Amino acid sequence: MIGAIIGDIVGSRFEFHNHKSKQFTLFTTDNYFSDDTVMTLAVAKALMETNKKEVIGEAYYQLLEKLTIEYIQALGRKYPYAGYGGMFIRWLLSSNPKPYNSFGNGSAMRISPVGFSAKSLEEADKLTEVITKITHNHPEGIKGAKATVTCIYLAKHGYSKEDIRKVINDNFYKLNFTLDEIRDSYQFNETCQGSVPQAIIAFLEGDSFEDAIRNAISIGGDSDTIACITGAISEAYFGVPEDIKNKALSYLDKELLNIYQEWVEFINE
Length: 269
Description:
Elements: H1 2-11, H2 35-52, H3 57-78, H4 86-93, H5 106-109, H6 112-117, H7 121-132, H8 139-156, H9 161-171, H10 179-182, H11 196-204, H12 209-218, H13 223-238, H14 242-249, H15 254-267
């Protein structure tokens, strides 16, 4: 999950000022965490709290759905200026939140905790759908989240890049392009179908965690979210250098840092 947070923070200053090059300083005083980090930590918190309860089967998934709504709303409202989209803000502030048929890439940017905690690909798929459909119940919104989690799960469990590419090609998106081919023409796109494949390619073309993050930034577009998705997958595959992790964590406030530290303990149990 720290990979998603790092990608968000590194990409934050480029979201509306695209930098179509791999040459840049990772962290500056202009970097910050955005809604990608807040929502990722909210999902992590919901998963942790659900797992504390002694419920199984369908009751588990019903509780997870309930707590995901509660924690996303609670944490999101504490950070009202984190950069949410208009439709999501209305959902966030609603007393009776309902899914709004979104296929935005918000479904993919917040879902990485599932890829790291699921015990099987089947469980990952079910958890992803439960968490995603509370807002992004459009098929493309669910597909983007599932593709992201599938990459994370496979990378975490030792699958090769070739294996991961084949699974995504066969089940989600045709990864039939390179970053060099799209860099000059790629534009800002907040949909899953217009940013998740690009984020996956950034990982596939990377030769290290940092290189993959630089790939994600280099195509422009919705830089923080693309780098967030790339970062999560790359963490699962490459691991994260300690210096980069520690620098990113220094941007978090106490509340967000506490959730992250709780997650580290949870995932290592």
